[in-house]
Amino acid sequence: MSQAPALIRLSNPLARGLLRLGMPMGPNTLLTVRGRKSGEPRSAPVAIVEIDGRRWTMGAYGEVHWVRNLRAAGEGDIRLHGQDVHVRARELGLAEAETFYGETLRGYIAKLPAFGRVFARILFSAAGPEVLDDPQQAALSHPVFELTEA
Predict the structure, then answer these.
(1) Count of structural domains within the chain
(2) Which CATH number fits the domain that encloses residue 106?
(3) What gap in Å lies between CA 118 and CA 109, rounded to an integer?
(4) For the chain, which terminal residue's Cβ has fewer other Cβ atoms within 10 angstroms, N or C?
(5) At 28, is the secondary structure helix, strand, or coil?
(6) What's the CA angle centered on 113, arms 110 and 115, to 5 degrees?
């Protein structure tokens, strides 16, 4: 199983708290999903890519706990504009994930303001440079889920 860098793990409680309070944090939101072993609700800050009414989230740090929980549960809640929205999660197959990384995500990042593009480059340099530079490798190591309202 993969693990997010220490800085991310240490800052997650703060990010969770701010997101619960409705603090805007760019594309980040709170995902709550049932734990695959405990059955208890587990929350994690995740980034949502939203384009033309469709939403995706990706395991930027690989097979972390929230990815495995979402895969097992197939559904969860995301916090949007102060409201919890129940979603179904469909994991993309390898070809779809490769298209997501090679086209969808690149196009999304290209439309961000300069600060957002720089931040994305820094983030993905730490999380996995293949996310921006090698869509085929990214699809193998960074799961992607499409989220649809249930």
Answers:
(1) 1
(2) 2.30.110.10
(3) 9
(4) N
(5) strand
(6) 110
